[in-house]
User: Fold this.
Amino acid sequence: MDSTSAEATTARAAHADPAHALCLADVERAAAAVLPAEVRDFISGGSGAETTLDANRAALDRVRLVPRVLRDVSRCTTRTTLLGHPVRLPLAIAPVAYQRLVHPEGELAAARAAGAAGVPFIVSTLSSVPVERLTATGAAVWFQLYWLREPGRSLDLVARAEDAGAQAVVLTVDVPWMGRRLRDMHNRFALPDHVRAAHLATGPTRAHQAPDGAVSALAVHTDAAFSSALTWSSVAALRERTRLPLVLKGVLAAEDAVRAAECGVDAVVVSNHGGRQLDGAVPSADALPEVVSALAGRRCEVLLDSGVRSGTDILRALALGARGVLVGRPALWGLAMGGEAGVRRVLALLAEEFGDALGLAGCADVSAAGELRTVRHG
Assistant:
């Protein structure tokens, strides 16, 4: 997508009124109407046959809540804490790369929206806006780290994030290399000239594409930049290096969650990368209860990522034992639909839906949600 296409996308998005969206499906449709097909595929697609991508939603839909009645819910609150910091909603915006693909302000607009909503914004190593500009918005910013081939560069990025005022480090542990994302390969997807990885020296341009055959420039670039030698010793080195809370994102096995806690990790994100890495991996919602059980009594929070599309999904995650959730694609849809106002609308919808679900389930606060029983349908 060239700069002309980006300008056309922005012009079309200007006609979408975020206030008219009544649910995230409305936001997704509005985004689809303004984004070029290859960008829609980059955001929406998964790896392989996309079985895990589809399974994430199916797994959440199987969770049935058992509401309680005759409880005073006249003063429901959605406020809680994540990593010890107060939040207005048990939610953080997940790290998503290259957000200037969908709006000229990119991550800057999304971070401002997160700050206004009182939830953390997780900035990607592959952000198209530098971390310093994002923390300057006043939002609670967490820095997501991909382990690079030169470990010293990874630690330098962490130091940079600390100096900028980031509140946590989120190490992604499920990307030794990028999964085979067939939509991007068929599209021979590459970044336009105006979008770059602000924290790295180079980015996945068309120079990373082979002259023949289907290939994703992003996959070629990440294979060259990311280390496939990330191990528990790397986690230990990072834990020793940073004073910030450390989160591991991409944990599905209970054994790995326990090992993370033993390494001094402050939280794990139960995630299959939104169905974008190992196709056939267990849905995050199905893996969540076992991870929660394994970490019982340990000082390690559990968050859920992958497939969250409503306030009811947030309540489902909490009932299954999560402390909160990460939301990725919906924030991009909001950004495409209306920039900062679009992301604000996404977060407002999730807050409204979650508050509604919380009260209807007989829960006056977030802690009560963790006491709800669930039934697996089908």
Q: What stands out?
A: The domain at 3-376 is CATH 3.20.20.70 (TIM Barrel).
